[in-house]
Design a protein that fits this description.
Layout: E1 5-8, H1 12-23, E2 29-32, E3 45-47, H2 50-59, H3 63-67, E4 77-80, E5 86-90, E6 100-102, H4 103-112, E7 119-121, E8 125-129, E9 137-140, E10 145-147, E11 150-153, E12 171-181, H5 190-196, E13 200-205, E14 208-214, E15 220-227, H6 230-239, H7 241-251, H8 257-264, E16 271-277, E17 290-292, H9 295-298, H10 307-324, H11 329-359, H12 365-375
Parallel strand pairs: 1-2, 1-11, 2-7, 4-13, 11-17
Antiparallel strand pairs: 3-6, 4-5, 8-9, 9-10, 12-15, 12-16, 13-14, 14-15
Helix pairs in contact: 1-4, 1-10, 2-10, 6-7, 10-11, 11-12
Subunit structure: Monomer.
InterPro entries: FAD-bd, FAD/NAD-bd_sf, TetX_monooxygenase
Function: An FAD-requiring monooxygenase active on some tetracycline antibiotic derivatives, which leads to their inactivation. Hydroxylates carbon 11a of tetracycline and some analogs.
């Protein structure tokens, strides 16, 4: 039996879904708004967890290629207070149970694992029409449309596919990230490299923090975190990089000079990244032929470290249900969602709790307690 499957979004979840379907002999088409795979930077490191991300990569037949991307020791963790006092220092491991990989390299590996022509670049979905007895119809910004037996929304936080299933919209969590990083060709100073250590530095206090990673090429990537009304920081962002630097300098003026220098020396092009989340118990009634994976289904803060992991796991699980029940599409989608909802709700709850452990009133002690449990 031949199935027509349209996956909206070429992120990690959508790619993993298509790859796993391909492994089972089921073709799928991916539609993505970007003009090409290189259109947008895909930087940053991900720690890939055994029961979710690693399990999905095994199911996709990509575990060995994934292992070649691992950056040994880059899972190191250091926690300090605002004075720079080291409260927790874990040196990492050669491979580790939750190894770090570069997001862009992982995405490139997934794209390369698909048959040529699987991804249709430059196709921005703007909505999905559903009607009883009819196949779902995806409409694109260029005026074109397609129908498919199965439409999967893998289109992220502001998913257009989700609107055909749910009225839920992401809500601001109260925490805003400001993305920082080394300017082109700029290496970390010796002092800043020593402050961060080999892996990730988490300097936290109630209401704010610095999350910085020492990359393999001696550059920095990371975020400044501030608990603030979104309107305030958005207004500063509109005023430009100098205003954003001034805001950060004010908010961190009583922190250790080594920490403020680390941030301000790597703020040539700060980017505002407000943290949004869907309700922790987000779910929807079955709509024939349509479902969601990844952030489209369960957007949450990054503080469970499961966003990319769950997206890939969702993709693998959905592919397995479709491959197992190719003649019963609704049965496959129902079984997938029955497992998805409690799984994602538990992780979303944990993510919300961990956000408070990072920047709530008990930080940094609550952050230390969290990692002492995770890494013991």
């Amino acid at each position: 039996m031949s199935l027509s499957i349209a996956i909206i979004g070429a992120g990690l979840g959508g790619l993993l879904l298509a790859r796993t379907l391909h492994r089972h002999g089921i073709p799928a088409a991916i539609y993505d708004a970007e003009a090409s795979a290189e259109m947008r930077a895909q930087g940053g490191l991900l720690d890939i967890h055994p029961p979710t991300g690693q399990a999905a990569l095994r199911e996709a037949g990509l575990f060995e290629p994934f292992r070649s991307l691992i950056r040994p020791g880059h899972d190191a963790r250091r926690i300090t207070d605002r004075n720079g006092t080291v409260l927790f220092d874990w040196a990492g491991s050669s491979l580790g149970t939750r190894p770090e990989v570069d997001r862009g390299e992982l995405r490139t590996m997934l794209i390369a694992s698909l048959p040529e022509g699987t991804i249709r670049w430059g196709r921005k979905a703007i909505g999905v029409l559903t009607a009883l007895g009819c196949r779902p119809e995806v409409h694109f910004a260029d005026g074109s449309s397609i129908t498919a037996q199965i439409v999967v929304g893998a289109d992220g936080a502001w998913s257009r596919v989700r609107r055909s299933l749910s009225t839920a919209e992401p809500a601001y969590t109260g925490t805003c990230f400001i993305e920082i990083g080394s300017a082109g060709g700029q290496l970390l100073s010796r002092e800043s490299a020593e402050v961060i250590g080999r892996g990730t530095l988490m300097a936290v206090a109630p209401g704010q923090g610095i999350l910085a990673h020492h990359n393999a090429d001696d550059t920095l990537s990371g975020y400044v975190a501030i608990n603030t009304p979104l309107e305030l920081v958005a207004a500063v962002d509109t005023a430009g990089p100098a205003a954003m630097r001034a805001l950060v300098a004010r908010r961190f003026e009583h922190w250790a000079p080594a920490l403020t220098t680390l941030v301000l020396d790597n703020m040539s092009d700060p980017l505002l990244r407000p943290i949004y989340a869907l309700p922790t118990t987000h779910r929807w009634e079955r709509v024939p032929g349509v479902t969601l994976i990844g952030d489209a289904a369960h957007l949450m803060s990054p503080f469970a470290g499961e966003g990319a992991n769950l997206a890939m796991f969702d993709g693998a699980e959905l592919a397995l249900q479709i491959a197992t029940h190719p003649a019963d599409i609704e049965g496959a989608l129902t079984a997938y969602e029955k497992a998805l909802f409690p799984r994602s709700a538990e992780v979303a709850r944990r993510s919300a709790e961990n956000l408070q452990r990072f920047f709530g009133p008990d930080a940094p002690r609550s952050t230390v307690d969290l990692f002492a449990r995770l890494l013991r």
